[in-house]
Structures are given as structure tokens and as C-alpha cells.
Design goal:
The complex is a heterodimer of chains A (212) and B (439).
Chain A lengths: L2 H15 L3 H23 L5 H15 L9 H19 L11 H13 L3 H19 L4 H12 L4 H8 L3 H21 L1 H7 L15
Helix pairs in contact in A: 1-2, 2-3, 2-4, 3-4, 5-6, 6-10, 7-8, 7-9, 8-9, 9-10
Chain B lengths: L16 H18 L11 H22 L14 E5 L4 E4 L3 E5 L3 E6 L5 E7 L1 E6 L8 E5 L2 E5 L3 E5 L8 E6 L1 E6 L2 E6 L2 E4 L3 E4 L15 E3 L15 E3 L9 E4 L6 H9 L30 E2 L19 H7 L2 E2 L8 H14 L4 H14 L4 H14 L6 H16 L3 H13 L6 H9 L2
Parallel strand pairs in B: 2-15, 5-7
Antiparallel strand pairs in B: 1-4, 1-17, 2-3, 3-6, 4-5, 6-9, 7-8, 8-11, 9-10, 10-13, 11-12, 13-14, 15-16, 18-19
Classes of the chains: A mainly alpha (212), B alpha+beta (439).
Chain lengths: 212, 439
């Protein structure tokens, strides 16, 4: 984070603390995209995302006075969001249903797969792979799921992940390792998941545009 | 199995604009309210709601019945200490500036140190409804080592049995709570306790003490104060007609505890001892001092005028303008890159962090003409560095920016009062006193 951004954050937080609605809006707009992406990768879909985003940011504003600028504002907000996600996962008894694929997309993809074993079909396989992956994650403990998704999918380092989930680095490594083992075990039984995790060179990535 | 390939392979499905707008609207509107209540409020059934409404209606009717015979009460505006002690019942006292409602078993003293109102609590709980005070000094409630400063709001202070620490609940406006040289803002819907700091009002359970009757205390505003010990206010209990509360208006001197408190009331407008000559340094625009940070006198200014008594003379804006300010940190870069350099120093958090932060405000005021930003920066500075070497300098710079850029108004006077309160030995004390006395 640049120094200018740090000072901007400090001043923005001060404005928020004075109850200025414009500052509240600015803070939300500045961080919502990242928080949403983080929550999406943890949960695997946008189900209940409105409530979660709202909860996360309301908690942020409720606790804003407690931000001591020891961590960057973004990291601090992410920690709040991760706590909200943890609570959500715990309350749902780990039975979060993944809906990373909208119905329209699924319909189109299924049409394509019916037609031929072309790029559309492979994309559909990738989507199925994601679905299977999150189905396995649904069976993990919330802590293990958070550690795995933040590290392996959101791309954060183990140290960052540990900071976000409020655990030690060792405990976080262990959780990630356990999650990997569970996924590997599931992949051994599930060719779709296995294919998704170890794609062949010619497999089109999930988010690629139309193949040539 | 290689999991590294997962990064970036799972795209984020964006939320549509309508959902985002709705979320944003709810968050912005709820950002203030959320501090006043827990995020997940319990859901009550219809029957519970109706029962609650019925209780409120009965309560309102009872209160109306209680007040039916109360005669209009003239405010108590005595200049000298008013002692209020309630033993078994609540009381309500209109002092003109504010209405004080005390719980049972409450003891407090009200004084008026030159324009301000000082409520010194010994024990119990008091609720205050304070009208806008305009250019008058704020009302201060002192409860042990905690001070609550208010310029117009509704709040309560609970000091228990007088041996613990006060609890503050704010229902309207904003108050500032001071304790152990640290202050926090408590806004509507928030409460403050020494242990927990600022919390949502709903998180602090209300403690009700025995006694529910309302007693209106009244006194003739024009009535001259009597001899020491003579009751100066008539007390009526609308229920029994007996005098259950004793309110005394004394002509004697304030007790020691109050004298001490008067000295720290920020805007009591009391001149304490001979005023100091404003320090501007001498000779040149960047004089140095042997103790403390370097002072600069803005270009074009003259040495501050002082009378024979040592008090500064002249027009206030001129006096403010001529008074020295602590110089910005010299980082050896041109004006264009100053702010960026200061920001780096602030971020690095080294020895120069506080000075660099102060220097940002200095630069915004003197070089960039961004006075609003300068005030924001100074506010942030004072919150972040309450005890730094540049604390007094920042307070004075705040006075200067507020008074010169926005005029000698209430905010300017309040900034000066803040300076006097938080930097009682500051170099600009004499000018700050003059500002608080200005009309």
C-alpha cells in the first residue's frame, strides 16, 4: 500500500467517524469489490451475498473506531469480512449450497454439450468441476474451508491467511493441508473434479471467452 | 495434486447494479444506526409488540397524570453553587440552559464559572437535556475523573455510588468524554464506560434505581441569593406536597473540588493570572527556540502587540496572524513534492511521523490554501497523537486555520477554548483567551 493511500484511509475513516454519509459511501465503494470477491471465493456463489456484504460493512462501520491503523484498512476490512463468512458458515452447519453457475449459463452450456464435445462442453466440465470442488468444501470445517479458499483460490499467502482468520501460521498450514487431503480423496473418486484440478493442456479455462 | 492452478480459475460472478445499489443504500443509511444497536436485533412477535405498545401507552398516561398538577417552573439561574440531593425519588430541575433529571440517591452541585455550566456529581445518575448554547461556553458534567463536555444534546451520566467510574449514555447530539487526559467523542446512540470505551447504547443495560415520582424544583429567577445555608429554591412534591428534596443556593465560595474543576473547564472564560505574551520568536521569519520545536512567524506579520499588563492588544485576526506557528518539517524537497514526502514519512512511522503529519496540515494551510483539508488533517493528528511534542502546535494551528479562514465565530471560539483546555500552558494562551472572550 502506498503512503498516500494510507493517509487517505486515515482521513477517510475520520470523516466516516464524524457521520458524513459521503464518506461512508466512498469507503463502501472503495472496498466492496474486493470484499465481494473474497466472500465469493470462500462461499462459491452469490447466495446470501447481499446479507453478507451488508453484515460485513455494517460491522466495519460499527467497529471503525477500533481501527488503529496498525494494519492497512483493506486488510482490517477483509478480516471483518472473513469473520462474517466464518459465522455464516458455522450457522449454516457447513451446508452451504454452491451456486457459482447461474441457471442461464447452465442452460446454454448444456445445449452446447449436447451438440458436440467442443469448447462449450469443456467449459461445462469446468463448471461442474467448480461445483464438485465446493461440494467437497461444504463438508469441511469452516476454519479449514476459510484457510483453503483464502490461500488456494483467493491467492493469499499463508501468513496473510493466518492473519485474516486470526490463527497461527502453523495451524493455518495444517488446515490447508487437511483440506487438500480431503479434496484429493474426493478427486480420486470423482473424474470431473480430478479433471478440473489437473486439467489437460487443451482444456479451456473456466472463464475464457469463446474459443477460436 | 497441484492446487496452485486454482488461483484465478474461479471467476467472481459480479453482483448486478441494482443489488449493489440496494446494498449501498442500506449500508449508508444503517451506518449511523448500527452503532446504536446490535447487528442482529431479536425479532419480536406481534403479541410482544402489542404488549410493549400497551406498556408504553400506560406509562405515558401515568406520566401525564403525575405531571397534571405541576405548576410551570421558572428556571433556576443562580450564579452561585446549587446543591441537589435526592434520596428516594427522581427530580427534575430546569436551570435555564438545561433540564436535569436526577435519579434517586443522586447528589450533585451546579456552578456557573463565567458563562459555562459545571455539574459536579458526587453520586447517582443524572439525565440532561441541553439546549443549543450558541456562543456561550459549553456545559460540563464532572463525575470523578471523567468529564463530559457538551454544547447541546441529550445524554445521561451515571456515577453509581460515587466511588466507581461514570457511565455516559447519549441519546441526541454529540458529547466529548474526557478521562485521564484522553478524550473520545460519543455520539447519539452510543454509550461510554471506562472499561469498554465507546459502545452501542443498546449494549449498556439501563440500571433503574428505586423511586419513580417526578418532582419539579423551581426557583425565582430574579430572586437574590440568600445568606449561606438558606434554602434558595422551593421544592414541591406533586404527590405528597412535602419537601423531599433539598436544593440550596449558597452565597459562599465554591468548595475546593469545584475550584479545581473551574480551572479545567475549557471555556469558562476565566482569566487565570497574568496573561502571557504571545511568543513569536524574534528576528526573521524562522527564529529558533531553545526548548521545543522551531517557531516561524508568517511573512508580513509584525511582533504581537502587548499592553503594559502583558495582555495582547490589537485586532484579533491580526493577533492570530502574527502569532508564530511551529515550522513544518524541512525535508529538502520543493513544494510540489512536499505532501508526498510527508506522506511517506507518516507511513514509515519513524521518529518524524508526528512532525510529518503536522507538516501536512501546515502545508495544506500555508502553501496549498486547502483550509478544510488542513482542519481534517489536524483533527486526525490530534486523535492519533494526543501526547506528541507537536500537540500544542497542532492545537494552535487549528485555531489559526479555523479563525482566519472561516472567521471569528463559534467554531473559532470553540477551537480556542480547546486550545486553552488542552494546552493550558501553551504559548498562545493569551490570544486564545481573547478569542474565547470575543463577541
Amino acid at each position: 500500500m502506498t503512503a498516500a493511500l494510507y493517509v487517505e484511509d486515515v482521513l477517510l475513516v475520520d470523516r466516516c467517524l464524524t457521520g458524513e454519509p459521503a464518506a461512508t459511501r466512498e469507503l463502501f465503494r472503495r472496498h466492496q469489490r474486493r470484499v465481494h470477491a473474497c466472500l465469493f471465493r470462500v462461499l462459491g456463489g452469490n447466495r446470501d451475498m447481499d446479507d453478507l456484504l451488508q453484515d460485513a460493512f455494517l460491522q466495519v462501520f460499527q467497529s471503525l473506531r477500533g481501527w488503529r491503523a496498525e494494519a492497512s484498512l483493506a486488510t482490517w476490512i477483509d478480516r471483518v469480512a472473513v469473520r462474517v463468512a466464518y459465522r455464516y458458515l458455522s450457522q449454516r452447519g457447513r451446508r452451504v449450497q454452491t451456486d457459482s453457475m447461474s441457471d442461464d449459463e447452465a442452460g446454454v452450456a448444456l445445449d452446447e454439450i449436447d451438440r458436440a464435445d467442443g469448447p462449450g462442453a469443456r467449459r461445462q466440465l469446468a463448471r461442474d468441476g467448480v461445483k464438485q470442488l465446493y461440494a467437497v468444501l461444504d463438508k469441511l470445517s469452516p476454519a479449514a474451508r476459510l484457510a483453503f479458499t483464502l490461500h488456494e483460490i483467493d491467492g493469499r499467502t499463508i501468513a496473510e491467511t493466518a492473519q485474516l482468520v486470526g490463527s497461527s501460521v502453523t495451524a493455518t498450514k495444517l488446515r490447508v493441508w487437511r483440506a487438500r487431503k480431503s479434496i484429493e480423496a474426493a478427486a480420486a473418486q470423482d473424474p470431473v473434479l480430478s479433471e478440473f484440478l489437473e486439467p489437460r493442456a487443451d482444456v479451456i479455462p473456466f472463464d475464457d471467452k469463446e474459443a477460436p | 495434486m497441484n492446487f496452485d492452478g486454482l488461483k484465478g480459475r474461479i471467476p467472481v460472478e459480479p453482483l448486478d447494479d441494482e443489488r449493489l445499489t440496494n446494498i449501498e443504500r442500506r449500508i449508508v443509511s444503517g451506518a449511523d444506526a448500527t452503532v446504536a444497536r446490535p447487528l442482529r436485533t431479536p425479532r419480536f412477535g406481534l403479541a410482544t409488540g402489542m404488549a410493549f405498545a400497551a406498556v408504553v401507552a400506560v406509562g405515558a398516561g401515568f406520566a401525564g397524570w403525575q405531571l397534571r398538577g405541576a405548576r410551570p417552573a421558572a428556571p433556576v439561574v443562580a450564579e452561585l453553587p446549587v446543591h441537589v440531593r435526592t434520596d428516594t425519588q427522581r427530580s427534575s430541575l430546569d436551570i435555564g440552559d438545561a433540564v436535569l433529571t436526577t435519579d434517586a440517591a443522586t447528589e450533585l452541585t451546579i456552578t456557573r464559572p463565567n458563562g459555562g455550566v459545571l455539574v459536579t456529581m458526587k453520586r447517582g445518575k443524572v439525565e440532561l437535556e441541553v439546549g443549543k448554547r450558541g456562543d456561550r461556553a459549553p456545559l460540563v458534567v464532572a463525575a470523578g475523573d471523567t468529564q463530559v463536555i457538551v454544547v447541546g444534546t441529550r445524554f445521561s451520566v451515571d456515577y453509581g455510588d460515587g466511588t466507581g467510574v461514570a457511565e455516559v449514555r447519549v441519546t441526541e447530539g454529540v458529547v466529548r468524554v474526557e478521562r485521564h487526559q484522553q478524550d473520545v467523542r460519543v455520539t447519539a446512540g452510543q454509550a461510554w464506560t471506562a472499561k469498554r470505551g465507546v459502545i452501542a447504547l443498546a449494549q449498556l443495560p439501563e440500571v433503574r434505581r428505586p423511586g419513580g415520582g417526578t418532582i419539579v424544583a423551581s426557583a425565582d429567577a430574579a430572586r437574590p441569593t440568600g445568606t449561606p445555608g438558606e434554602p434558595g429554591a422551593t421544592i414541591d412534591d406533586p404527590e405528597t406536597g412535602s419537601s423531599a428534596i433539598e436544593i440550596e443556593i449558597e452565597t459562599g465560595e465554591a468548595p475546593d473540588i469545584l475550584r479545581d474543576r473551574i480551572a479545567v473547564v475549557p471555556d469558562a472564560r476565566v482569566r487565570t493570572g497574568p496573561t502571557a505574551t504571545p511568543t513569536t520568536g524574534s528576528g526573521g521569519t524562522r527564529p529558533t527556540t531553545t526548548d521545543g520545536p522551531a517557531i516561524v512567524r508568517p511573512s508580513g506579520s509584525t511582533t504581537g502587540n502587548t499592553g503594559t499588563s502583558g495582555a495582547p492588544r490589537g485586532k484579533l485576526p491580526t493577533l492570530i496572524k502574527n502569532h508564530g506557528v511551529v515550522a513544518a518539517l524541512d525535508v529538502g524537497v520543493d513544494d510540489k513534492h512536499l505532501m508526498a514526502r510527508y506522506q511517506v514519512l507518516v507511513r514509515e512511522r519513524g521518529d518524524q511521523e508526528a512532525h510529518a503529519f503536522y507538516s501536512m496540515a501546515f502545508t495544506q494551510h500555508f502553501k496549498l490554501g486547502r483550509n478544510g483539508d488542513a482542519l481534517s488533517t489536524l483533527d486526525a493528528y490530534l486523535r492519533r497523537f494526543p501526547k506528541s511534542e507537536y500537540h500544542d502546535a497542532a492545537l494552535w494551528l487549528r485555531v489559526r486555520v479555523q479563525c482566519l479562514a472561516f472567521g471569528i465565530d463559534d467554531k473559532c471560539r470553540f477551537a480556542a477554548a480547546e486550545y486553552l483546555r488542552r494546552a493550558p500552558d501553551g504559548r498562545a494562551r493569551a490570544i486564545a483567551e481573547l478569542i474565547t472572550l470575543s463577541r
